[in-house]
Amino acid sequence: MMPNLIDKIGDWNPQLLRELKGRLKFFNVAIAVATSLLLQLVVFLYQFREFPNDQYPLFLSYCHLRQVYELQQKEVYQESNQSKIADLRSFLSKNFCPQNEIDWQLWWRDHWEYIFLTFSVIFVFTLLVAGTYLLINDLAKEETRGTLNFIRLSPQSETSILTGKLLGVPSLIYLVVLVAVPLHLWAGLSAKIAFSYILSYYSILAASCIFFYSAALLFGLVSRWFSGFQPWLGSGSVFLFLFTTMVLASSYNRHGLNNSTAWFRLFNPWDTTNYLFPNLFHISNGSPLKNYQFFYLPLGINVVSVVSFHLLNLGLCSHGIWQALKRCFRNPQASIINKKQSYLLVAFCQLMMWGFALQFGKDDYRWDEQVGQNYILLALYNLVLILSLIAVLSPHRQDVQDWARYRHQEVSSHKSVWQDLIWAEKSPALVAIAINLTIATIPWLVWLSLTFVIDANGVKTLLSNDIDRFKALLVIALSISLMMIYATIAQLILLLKTPKRSFWAIGTLGAAIFLPPMILEFIGISSWKYPTVWMFTTFPWVAIEHAGLITIFMALLADLSVLALLNFQLTRQVRLAGESATKALLARR
Amino acid sequence: MLIISRTPAAMVKELAICTRGLTKQFDRYIAVNDVDLEIQVGEVYGLIGPNGAGKTTLIRMLATAEEPTTGEIYINGDRLLRDKSNPKLKRCLGYLPDDYPLYEDLTVWDYLDYFARLYRLREPRRTQRLHEVLELIQLGNKRHSQISTLSRGMKQRLSLARTIIHEPILLLLDEPVSGLDPIARMHFREIIKALQEAGMTVIISSHVLSDLAELCTSVGIMELGFLVESTSLQQLYQRLAHQQIMLSTLGNLETLLSELKHHPLVEEWEVIPGKNSVRVNFSGKEEDSAELLRSLIQARIPLTDFHCIQEDLESIFLKLGHKQAS
């Protein structure tokens, strides 16, 4: 029976069998099972300390007589009779709840609920933190040893190999959790929690595992330069994310999920788990998920919509990560995503961020106000997104050289240069970045053309003032031209011959983005006093309110001139990179 | 379009490997330059060249471990593309790189079983094939040993077993005998001969030219990324190897030399120091060498040794002057 099953697993997924064979050895399995059982015992006994014994106080929650004494206490306090108060206190401290007056049913229900919730939290941390560590560590090891190349050369698909890794590498962690599942399930049912809710929790947990593990695999594949440090970095980041979001989810904040940040919170399992089991964090006003919306769709209205949307979000993002995983696994030198995927990614991010930006609040109904509250966040997220895309999409010297030198020889490419710049793998990424910026700008343009803007004093007004609208348009153009300048600088540095060009690119862009505003702040040149200077920094929108139309226009012209110059230089460099060895020799280069 | 016209399907079909304009460029340095390689089915093809000539890069590209900058590769007439999974073509290829990383935590049997499964071998063929391969590499008695306990030569042979477990029709071996002792090398040569008899096409790059001379049917010489020579070993010997004759005498060496000097087919001679022997470069055929022997005996020279030898591959390679590393 057992050899047959192993054989079937091996035929279905050889990678899974290999991982299981390497890990499920007697000693490892024994330790995993013992750890799990010990943990269950500790959790069970910890709460058992509170087991009501014959000295259980009369005024505590599980004593039936509590209500009687509470009523008495209330009356005595109302009378303000000190001697009676003292008598009552002395009575309560000397007498205990009789065993037959203890609400055992309630005690056990609460006890089981406590066990259930404790394990719900432990499962999340164990699976996500330890699992990501093991996966990143395993991939990093295989990549360092060079064994991954043999697997790449086999006829197995990327999906099969990576699924095998995903299911096999954390197998001992799965074992620890699986051994604890019966107690968890039993505790949940004993605590009168609906089975469908428990299943919903498991589905959220499974989807989170798939998402975080896929991300871990991708991180393991693309982060070769960290050498031995990447498992700690990866799992440490996951732990930090889970911890921070747990703290956020356990404290009620009316606006916590009422802005575009809500999307990032959706990646943690806590909010939805707390929605399913409100006693997890005991938030007095209930889960903030109850009021959250997506493009005004009331998603928090019931469990089905909350869980479905959470699963849909994790599913879509995991699917996206798998597209990148397949590329990186097949060709480790390839960029994480291609240009076409970047367009889809930016469009998807806009959809999600704007979806959560547009929610009805309790007292604000105007959608221009919601955008007004969110515009800094939206701009900031888009800045990070586009900068990440510059890093991911900009090809290095070798790729640009190959593209420029041999493009004309490719049989399949009878495309124009523009088609190549928009879609091709190794072409410079500037046009693609411009397209991505356009995609990110479309929602802003729709908003600008349809509705209101914020005036100089931050007061929300109707868009009666066309100058404001024009100013906003100019600032968007200014931001786009600035991002294009950054992209061109990055591409120029990546074309250098120096071996550490990635670090140079990151350093230069970091300095170009953060140094000017920091210096200006440091020497006290504020955006409201000297808006002209701020127009040339990364954050021109902080000065938009105080700058005149002409100033903004001049700043835009200056930016465009710099961009044109840089692009002229880039075109020259690409042409030089693409010339043949003979041509270079004749030109004595 | 031009490239397609250079590779008519009929021509490509007969070849195990055919490359057209295969180029790999690293920055300004061209590791493999416009290589048109053609290897017939069933050949053992030796790739020779100084370090940095582009042998490893060429083999890596053929194994899809490296992406060509430009050019095309055809395996049995089918185009090999790296960005696709190519499951059918990948089953035809077996690649052994010069370093051969292994999973030290597995046993020999589990390791081979894992790769057999990766290459979709099903039972009962899988177990049968594992036994066959273990017998071939002479590791049958070590099949339950942990890989970490094997010697270097054993690990090498295990890597070869992994390379051939799926019965590829094309083997790519990059410096397979480097770092092995003479006995391990001999074992390895025997295995390769057995594989050739089984009908596999083999490409080997190696610096041990005596091994290649024994194994190969064809050789290619690479220099500065170019394939400067690609021919059958027989043709290479015919074209470039001088016939040599080794002579020893009991009498005076000077008498022998004066006889040799007068013979029109004797081109050069070299006296072997310490022995009463001389090595002669002879441009004649077998009948001519018989005639030389007859004339020497008639001249009453007391010969103790007269045998024809052929110049070895190493001398030919050195004579060709392809010594420059890229």
Could you describe the 3D structure shown?
The complex is a heterodimer of chains A (589) and B (326). With 589 residues, chain A is mainly alpha-helical. Helix content of chain A is 70%, strand content 1%. Chain A folds into 2 domains: 25-46 and 106-323, no CATH class; 335-586, no CATH class. Chain A has helices spanning 2-12, 14-23, 26-48, 66-79, 82-94, 104-145, 148-153, 158-168, 171-190, 195-222, 230-250, 262-265, 270-276, 303-330, 339-357, 367-393, 397-406, 417-423, 430-450, 466-494, 501-522, 531-534, 549-578, 581-586, and strands at 293-294, 297-298. In chain A, helix 20 runs antiparallel to helix 21 (501-522). Chain A is flat, with a radius of gyration of 30 Å. Chain B has 2 domains: 2-101 and 165-238, P-loop containing nucleotide triphosphate hydrolases (Rossmann fold, 3-Layer(aba) Sandwich), CATH 3.40.50.300; 242-310, Alpha-Beta Plaits (2-Layer Sandwich). Chain B starts with a helix and ends in a 6-residue tail after the last helix. Chain B has helices spanning 2-6, 9-13, 55-62, 87-92, 108-118, 125-136, 152-164, 182-197, 209-215, 233-240, 253-262, 286-298, 313-320, and strands at 15-26, 29-35, 38-40, 44-48, 70-75, 78-79, 93-96, 170-174, 201-205, 218-223, 226-232, 243-249, 266-272, 277-282, 303-310. By secondary structure, chain B is α/β, with parallel strands linked by helices. Chain B is built from 13 helices and 15 strands. In chain B, the strands form 3 sheets. In chain B, strands 7-8-9-4-10-11 form a 6-stranded mixed β-sheet, with helices on both faces. Chains A and B meet through helix 1, helix 2, helix 7 and helix 17 of A and strand 1, helix 4 and helix 5 of B.
